[in-house]
Specification:
Layout lengths: L4 E4 L7 H7 L2 E2 L3 E3 L13 E3 L3 E2 L7 E2 L8 E5 L2 E2 L6 E10 L4 E9 L5 E10 L6 E10 L4 E10 L16 E8 L4 E7 L5 E9 L1 E2 L2 E2 L2 E8 L2 E10 L5 E11 L7 H14 L1 H19 L2 E3 L2 H16 L27 H13 L1 H13 L1 H10 L22 E3 L5 E3 L2 H4 L3 H16 L2 H22 L1 E3 L4 E3 L17 H24 L1 H11 L3 H12 L57 H7 L6 H12 L9 H12 L2 H12 L16 H15 L3 E2 L5 E3 L9 E8 L2 E8 L2 E6 L3 E5 L2 E5 L5 E4 L3
Parallel strand pairs: 28-32
Antiparallel strand pairs: 1-9, 2-3, 3-4, 5-6, 7-8, 7-13, 9-10, 10-11, 11-12, 12-21, 13-20, 14-15, 15-16, 16-21, 17-18, 19-20, 22-29, 23-24, 25-26, 27-28, 29-30, 30-31, 31-34, 32-33
Length: 760
């Protein structure tokens, strides 16, 4: 088994959409869904980061732009098509190491002609405006004329498979013959963003061009060029398709520049750019790879997740972030959630801190939108949107469907307010791990202060009980709406207020000029910080009669109690018998990690007994109806000694998309689960954490199958290489550092391997 490849060895058109997500190629700038050009069953997707539009949709959503991939081949009017021919052999594979999508098949046409096709596609990580495909055509038992139709399809729509929701977000501005090559310029309807797609094809033998009888065509909103190629039996013909993409977000709206770059790309050739692309991925894998020996499923799974997560991020664009479905599909309308900061960001902080910084700068650039959200809702400071696009304004749809398909009001945009504290938390985590003081001074402190202002205005003082409350909210568990005093939300608000006070003291000492400037800008004074300290001490956290068991929200323990006793083929929980799906909110069943999430984020504030008691209670009631959930239970399971279930939860996490265990992979990548996969390995099995003194700690435990776990992290510019075996840990560092292993501190010298042996 190739541990760097995801393979599809059987063609089944019913699975095409799932594999289109899995085989998506992205480079942070854009994602091209892994459509099979030789199939009729496809869900085209060309998603460019940061391009959103509303038009006639309910809310702003990511735009499915014109499709530049389209190409068709014909033999004597018979199309080379998997759905219309007898398939003699078929395989597709994603080479994750080099980020190349390979397809190979042999088919027999109705005429009896047999043809073999091999193709490669890549989206360049070297030059993010470039992509290309290569096709090898081999006629096995005939000689004939091959007709090639190169196309840019300007008919793509969002929600193409949902007639009531289908919408087109762009208009065609221009279609041009590049002689050779074709170009289509489109413009989004509301935001007036221009997108230029340009493609050209080449086929030669030595220096001899083999393409004949070119014809340029415009058919409606499709622009095409056609060629003829005379092919001989058992000879191989290689056809290249080159693509260039620019948008007005690039500060470039120049057809001439796109045309010139396309011509240069075609002149230098497929292999030249591919070589540079592979080199860039080699550098990336040196930072992100996780090696697991002895467990092939785990190895392939974790590589898939860190590969796809990295493909979604662009460190050079601080005005974009990673959507819940990555650049892989239209799920959740391409919106950005807390998923990015809480689930994905830790991976980037520890492996690619420059990218993490850029992702957090998105939240700074959308701070004005967060301020507007707070003001519109009658609050102060900054209230970050539950679902966000390019402005930071709230874009959560107001209506959706429940588990029975009935219309249901979506309240998350109104009530799932914990995201403001989640973002503040992630900013401090980045600062703690990178020591990027400039970021905290210039950007982070302002967000911490503005979110604290929001919480002050959102909290309600209960005079009778002398406590502060947050009422009518939704916690991470979205089965329960309009609840009072969700423990996760209240505790994170408490943390946000306290941390803002701490940073105010730090900033006043480190950069008093910036401190005074922010005081004036935000209308703050020392008395505000003192008030926040006092308020934080009186925020109510519900517990079960003073025991270590935290009540998810006030009144939760009064609901009807069900526990999970059955699981499906993917080992996902089945609804307990007699549960009414339209009355889940009246039960203690939980959609995803909620209290457990709190205990993980604020790990040092809770003792082991509290973690164990809450894990044992909530684990039996969590349905994992979100892909965000299993990874958190994996990590907590390891902390409290439930190692068997920890491994099972990990496998569910890394296989979320590869096995489609949530049943919706076709709508896009479960990007938060990809981040959770990394956390499960590094925070879970390796036991990585940072203590109050800022010292890196490891407390590893390896599953039975694992013979070795190896990866690299970066802590304050020090690269740390760790290899964990059943009986030893080997660590190498680029700078001298203290590291805790099994709660004992060791001084590790740079460039000198440190080996610690132990009994498993």
């Amino acid at each position: 088994m190739n541990l760097w490849e995801i393979e599809q060895n059987e063609y089944n058109p019913k699975q095409n959409k799932k594999y289109e997500t899995i085989f998506t190629l992205a480079n942070g700038y854009r994602g091209l869904r892994g459509v099979n050009e030789f199939s009729n069953e496809e869900w085209k997707g060309n998603f460019i980061a940061g391009i959103y539009d509303k038009a006639d949709a309910d809310v702003q959503e990511i735009v499915n732009n014109p499709d530049p991939l389209s190409i068709r081949f014909f033999i004597d009017k018979e199309s080379i098509n998997l759905d219309k021919s007898k398939i003699l052999k078929f395989s597709r594979s994603l080479n994750m190491k080099e980020s190349i999508l390979n397809t190979e098949f042999e088919i027999q046409l109705d005429s009896g002609k047999i043809i073999e096709v091999k193709s490669q596609r890549f989206v360049s990580m070297n030059n993010k405006h470039l992509w290309a495909s290569k096709y090898e055509i081999i006629p096995k038992n005939f000689s004939d004329k091959l007709i090639i139709e190169n196309e840019i399809d300007g008919t793509t729509t969002n929600s193409a498979n949902s007639p009531y929701d289908e919408i087109k977000h762009y208009i065609i501005k221009e279609m041009k013959d590049l002689e050779p090559g074709i170009l289509l310029k489109s413009e989004t309807k509301d935001t007036k963003t221009n997108i230029i797609e340009a493609t050209t094809i080449r086929c030669s033998k030595g220096y001899e061009n083999l393409l004949k009888n070119r014809k340029f065509k415009i058919l409606g909103e499709k622009v095409k060029e056609l060629y003829e190629l005379f092919i001989k039996e058992n000879e191989t013909y290689v056809i290249y398709k080159y693509g260039v993409t620019y948008t007005s977000r690039d500060k470039v709206d120049d057809i001439q520049q796109a045309e010139e770059e396309l011509n240069q790309f075609a002149f230098l050739g497929f292999e030249e750019e591919l070589k540079k692309h592979i080199e860039e991925w080699k550098k990336i894998w040196d930072k992100i790879d996780i090696e697991i020996e002895g467990d092939e499923k785990a190895q392939i799974g974790i590589r898939f997740n860190v590969y796809q997560l990295t493909s979604c991020a662009n460190k050079d664009d601080p005005k974009i972030s990673i959507a819940a479905k990555g650049l892989h599909g239209e799920g959740y309308k391409g919106h950005i959630f807390w998923d990015t900061e809480i689930y994905m960001l830790p991976f980037f902080i520890y492996t690619q801190p420059d990218t993490a910084r850029s992702l957090l700068l998105y939240r700074y650039h959308t701070l004005s939108g967060a301020r507007q959200n707070a003001s519109l809702n009658g609050y102060k400071g900054a209230q970050y949107a539950w679902e966000s696009t390019d402005t930071g304004l709230e874009t959560t749809p107001k209506w959706g469907k429940d588990y029975l398909g009935n219309p249901v009001r979506i309240w998350t945009g109104d009530e799932e307010i914990h995201i403001s504290a989640d973002i503040a938390f992630s900013i401090y985590e980045y600062f703690k791990i990178t020591n990027d003081e400039k970021f905290m001074i210039d950007y982070g402190s302002e967000i911490l202060f503005e979110t604290a202002k929001f919480w002050e205005s959102r909290l309600e003082y209960n005079y009778q009980k002398d406590r502060y409350e947050i009422n009518k909210v939704i916690g991470p568990d979205e089965f329960h709406e309009h609840v009072n005093n969700n423990a996760y939300t209240n505790y994170l608000a408490k943390w946000n207020l306290k941390k803002a006070c701490e940073i105010s003291k730090w900033l006043k000492e480190r950069d008093p000029i910036k401190y005074r400037k922010l005081e004036n800008k935000l209308g703050l004074s020392q008395s505000d910080f003192e008030k926040w300290e006092k308020i934080s001490e009186k925020i109510f956290i519900p517990r079960y009669y003073g025991s270590p068991l935290i009540e998810q929200f006030e009144g939760y323990f009064n609901l009807k109690d069900y526990t999970i006793s059955q699981w499906d083929k993917n080992k996902m929980p089945l609804w307990p018998k007699s549960v009414e799906l339209d009355k889940i909110n009246q039960t203690q069943l939980v959609k995803q990690a909620d209290v457990i999430m709190l205990l993980l984020l604020l790990d040092e504030e809770f003792d082991l007994e509290t973690k164990k008691v809450n894990y044992e209670y909530y684990e039996k009631r969590t349905m994992h109806k979100s892909s965000l959930s299993p990874s958190m239970y994996s990590i907590m399971g390891l902390k409290v000694g439930d190692t068997h279930n920890a491994y099972e939860y990990f496998i569910k996490t890394v296989m979320t998309d590869l096995e489609d265990n949530q049943g919706n992979t076709e709508y896009g990548l479960h990007a938060a689960s990809s981040g959770g996969s990394w956390q499960s390995v590094v925070y879970g099995f390796a036991g990585l954490s940072i203590d109050k003194e800022g010292i890196l700690s490891f407390n590893p435990w390896l599953p039975k199958l694992w013979e070795k776990l190896a990866f690299k992290v970066v802590l304050r510019n020090t690269e740390i290489f760790i290899s964990i075996y059943k009986d030893k840990v080997i660590i190498q560092v680029t700078e001298d550092i203290n590291i805790n292993i099994f709660s004992k501190t060791y001084f590790i010298e740079k460039q000198k391997p440190f080996i610690l042996t132990f009994n498993n």
